[in-house]
Design goal:
The protein is built from 18 helices and twelve strands.
């Protein structure tokens, strides 16, 4: 029986409430992370496999390496855009853990993040760290599975050839077959449309508001932990008159009109998206979740990670920089062509299977296995939490948690403030002691300096007096010698007369 440890915030059969999701960050800041970790979990759920996840501390602790070596046969690491600057600290921790492991380590779907024009120069500051990571992985596996062409090119520049483009495992959630088609001939004002948003992408706010005004059935599917926190706790944006075109504040009309949803489970997320006619936006996993739910989707690409995955899978996409800010989503729907996605799927699936077998991974698509049917049946029996909408201040069953959380947060902050004050008092005491000692040293140095100066003055005076004395003695000797020499001829002259 293979004992597998998997990098994931939580297991697919472990339902979590919104409260637990926030408290423990079970989605690793974005629910899209659960989509691809669940997909890998399903692929490896063979009849005799024992799979455990490492929980919210996704990148592990290097000091746990001995325990992991003793308890598991394999460490499986589904990743997203891990080769990016703000993931550096986490990548260091993960690399240090892998370097201490003696069991095989298999990486699924890691990606590099750069600009939409695939600028490799943006990656140079990461070269040393990524090289170390890739070397550690390849010392424990046959190859690294990457998201797309750009990541393959980047690792090739670093000198690695055992790299296979497999895309993101989330796209293979349904196994060896995949079909998608448009549900309606065209979008109308009555169409149900789902939008996903990356709040930092320029222009997305204008596109959202343009289509909010045109389509009453537009729904915002949030994905990030901070979205969940804002929707659950509320904010002061309405009374503070804070507004933004992007749905980041609860003053946004999509929140005000309860047209925003946050799912904390991929299962319910896909279920909600299945009720829509079309999905679009900047989130790659927001659109992949829609496609898996049978809903046509288009990605508005804004960086290398969204572009390389869209290209690899043949997902309809366009650069958001080239998209008019007043674009009608009906135009995106008309442009969407899913022929490459569907036609190329079998070959991409075979490539994924080949990657798993090359790395000696047993999977549910092998002969004698159920193709994932057991996984799906078990998922169907789990009672997952309902999606979260913007809280309106009523008692929705979570009021006790909110009050308890605020109380604990206040107490925690009070303890933190007390600890900081105590630390500051200690530091201030040390500084006062150091200052006093410094003043004492300064005074001693000043006294010593005055002594030196006095001695220098006295020494100079002595040297001057000694010099004058020497000059006086020389002068006396000189004059005495001169007087003696002038008297000798006179004596000689007198004696001769």
């Amino acid at each position: 029986m293979p004992r597998i440890l998997m990098r994931a915030g939580k297991g697919p059969f472990d339902p979590a409430s919104p409260e637990a999701t926030m408290q423990q960050n079970l989605i690793a800041t974005n629910v899209g992370n659960l989509l691809f970790s669940n997909a890998v979990h399903k692929m490896l759920s063979t009849s005799d496999a024992e799979i455990q996840v490492n929980g919210p501390r996704l990148n592990g602790d290097p000091d746990d390496a001995d325990r992991i070596n003793a308890e598991y046969d394999l460490f499986v690491v589904p990743l997203a855009n891990a080769f990016r600057h703000d993931f550096r600290k986490h990548l260091v921790t993960l690399t240090e853990l892998i370097e201490r492991l003696k069991i095989p380590v298999v990486v699924f779907g890691v990606g590099a993040q750069s600009s939409v024009d695939y600028d490799l120069d943006e990656m140079r500051s990461l070269d040393e760290l990524v090289t170390r990571f890739a070397r550690a992985v390849l010392d424990r596996s046959a190859s690294i599975g990457v998201r797309g062409e750009f990541t393959e090119r980047y690792l090739s520049r670093l000198g690695f050839t055992d790299v296979e483009v497999i895309g993101c495992p989330s796209m293979f959630f349904h196994g060896e077959s995949f079909q998608i088609a448009k549900k309606v001939p065209e979008l109308t004002s009555d169409s149900a449309i789902a939008v996903s948003v990356s709040r930092w992408v320029d222009g997305i706010g204008d596109i959202v508001m343009t289509n909010y005004e045109r389509y009453p059935g537009l729904t915002y599917f949030a994905q990030e932990l901070r979205d969940l926190q804002a929707m659950y706790w509320g904010d002061t944006s309405a009374v503070a008159n804070t507004h933004d075109e992007v749905p980041v504040h609860l003053s946004h009309p999509l929140f005000q009109e309860r047209k925003a949803r946050m799912h904390v489970e991929p299962h319910t997320w896909m279920g909600g998206l299945a009720e829509h006619d079309f999905a679009f936006g900047t989130r790659i996993h927001g659109n992949i979740a829609a496609l898996l739910a049978g809903t046509p989707a288009m990605v508005l690409c804004h960086d290398s990670r969204t572009l390389e995955l869209s290209r690899y899978f043949g997902i309809p996409h366009r650069a958001i920089a080239d998209t008019p800010r007043d674009v009608d989503v009906a135009r995106l729907y008309d442009e969407a062509d899913f022929s490459d996605l569907v036609k190329g799927y079998p070959e991409r699936f075979d490539r994924l299977v080949s990657f798993m077998e090359k790395n000696s991974l047993r999977h549910v698509f092998a002969s004698g296995e159920d193709g994932g049917a057991g996984f799906d049946a078990r998922m169907a029996r789990v009672d997952f939490a309902a999606p979260v909408t913007a809280w309106e201040g009523d008692d929705d069953g979570g009021l006790g948690y909110r009050i308890g959380w605020l109380k604990e947060a206040h107490a925690s902050q009070a303890r933190r403030v007390a600890e900081l004050r105590s630390r500051l008092d200690k530091e201030a005491g040390k500084l006062r002691e150091e200052l006093a000692a410094s003043r004492e040293r300064t005074e001693r140095l000043e006294r010593a300096l005055r002594r030196v100066e006095r001695e220098q003055r006295l020494g100079f005076g002595r040297r001057v007096r000694r010099g004058l004395a020497r000059r006086a003695r020389r002068l006396v000797r000189w004059r005495g010698g001169r007087d003696a020499s002038s008297a000798a001829p006179a004596r000689r002259a007198g004696g001769a007369s």
